[in-house]
Design goal:
Number of domains: 3
Number of strands: 17
Largest sheet: 5 strands, mixed
Strand content: 25-35%
Strand order of the largest sheet: 7-8-6-9-10
Length: about 290
């Protein structure tokens, strides 16, 4: 995309060429970049600065309509659409989903056998001792819709993120999702887009997802593109994050997809919502860069 529309002032939208936008002051770029849309389909857009290795500045979007004239199929789109198809089929074929936080994109599951795609396990409903109230997950009780044997699939965060970015039905599903052996949630209560993030009554975690607009200059905070009042502090584990996701510069984060298991709370002045990674465990988040 060579152009994008800034809608910060909805009564006077301004169309910028990428050449004009990159010449704005750093302060103006930070102020405007979360209000950009595609000029052809109005999908939310992002701005990426020129990279140190010579890549040009550009506008782009992960939210183009399929018939958008600006839309250019990429490896990322193909990957995301395939993930959405596979996850939607998973919702049909399985009774529950186990999130395998050790499973990386393109890698094998470390904790399950090669037959982990559709394993048969004893239903936890028969055990009758699962207490999910501690962290606010859906309380299982002693009865379930299906007893005996259940079909359970295992997936890593990368595929789940890719499917959500491409509109899978996961975030609206009643499927049980296990975040570990003890806690399970209805998918529709677990997966929350950044735009819908709200502090929970008891600090219960959720699986927040969406795309990133940008980070601050020191890459201590990540700012979602889906809203303007949410921030993700990463300073405490910045080194581990950059190493795990090969983040070399701020540009690598611009327009990236992200999913993070964490808790949401207000800052001191209640002007901004903070999403804190649960236990600062880097395995409980995934970032999908545009260039991956």
């Amino acid at each position: 995309m060579l152009d994008a529309i800034c809608t910060l002032d909805e009564t006077k939208p301004v169309t910028y060429t990428v050449f004009k936008f990159q010449k704005l002051s750093d302060a103006d770029i930070e102020h405007y970049r979360q209000s950009l849309i595609c000029p052809a389909c109005n999908g939310k857009a992002y701005f990426r600065k020129a990279s140190k290795d010579g890549k040009a500045a550009c506008f782009g979007s992960r939210y183009h309509q399929t018939d958008c004239s600006e839309f250019n199929p990429s490896n990322a789109k193909v990957r995301e659409e395939l993930a959405a198809i596979e996850v939607n089929q998973l919702l049909v074929d399985n009774d529950a989903l186990v999130i395998d936080f050790s499973k990386r994109a393109g890698g094998k599951c470390a904790s399950l056998s090669s037959a982990d795609k559709k394993v048969v396990v004893e239903s936890k409903a028969d055990k009758g001792n699962t207490d999910l109230a501690e962290i606010g997950a859906d309380k299982a009780g002693t009865q379930d819709e299906q007893s005996g044997m259940s079909r359970v699939s295992s997936e890593g965060l990368d595929k789940l993120l890719h499917s959500l970015l491409r509109g899978s039905e996961l975030a609206e599903s009643d499927l049980w999702v296990y975040t570990d052996e003890k806690y399970r949630w209805r998918a529709k209560n677990l997966f929350v887009n950044f735009a819908d993030a709200e502090p929970t009554d008891n600090g219960a975690p959720r699986m927040y997802w969406g795309t990133l607009s940008h980070s601050d200059k020191n890459m201590h905070w990540l700012n979602p593109a889906d809203c303007r009042d949410v921030g993700i502090p990463v300073e405490d584990y910045q080194e581990a994050l950059c190493k795990r996701f090969d983040i070399q510069e701020r540009r690598d984060l611009e327009g990236a997809g992200i999913i993070i298991f964490g808790k949401c709370f207000f800052n001191k002045d209640k002007t901004r919502k903070i999403i804190q990674l649960w236990g600062k465990d880097i395995s409980r988040m995934a970032i999908s860069k545009l260039d991956d």
